[in-house]
Specification:
8% strand, 50% helix, three-stranded mixed sheet, 3 strands, 4 helices, mainly alpha
């Protein structure tokens, strides 16, 4: 299973998760916070912050690879921590970013 492996998550991913929990699932804030803490507990690592440097790199990736900005920001954050695999159902499976980060769809 995907979550059995060590992973790193970015603050932007946590933000998007919280938005979905509130808007689509209509979860209460205390439930959202518990879910976020569970995710962070599984990761065991400090989340990747959304910094100006990540923002700048994300803009460049969005332009170079013709990606939506928020997806490019997630990729830039992963590259900030030297990740080699980025799990996403939204991006093209097998896409290689800057010869060092491979996008994988967990459902394929």
């Amino acid at each position: 299973m995907l979550l059995e492996r060590p992973f790193i998550i970015g603050v932007q991913s946590l933000n998007e998760f919280a938005v979905v929990c509130r808007r689509k699932l209509e979860m209460r804030w205390d439930d959202v916070n518990r879910a976020l803490m569970a995710i962070l507990g599984l990761s065991g690592e400090e989340p990747i912050p959304l910094t100006y440097d990540v923002h700048r790199k994300g803009i460049l990736l969005a332009e170079r690879y013709k990606l939506p900005l928020y997806d490019a920001l997630l990729l830039a954050a992963a590259m900030e921590r030297d990740c080699t695999t980025f799990w996403s159902e939204d991006l093209h499976n097998g896409l290689i970013i800057d010869s060092r980060l491979t996008v994988r769809n967990p459902f394929i």
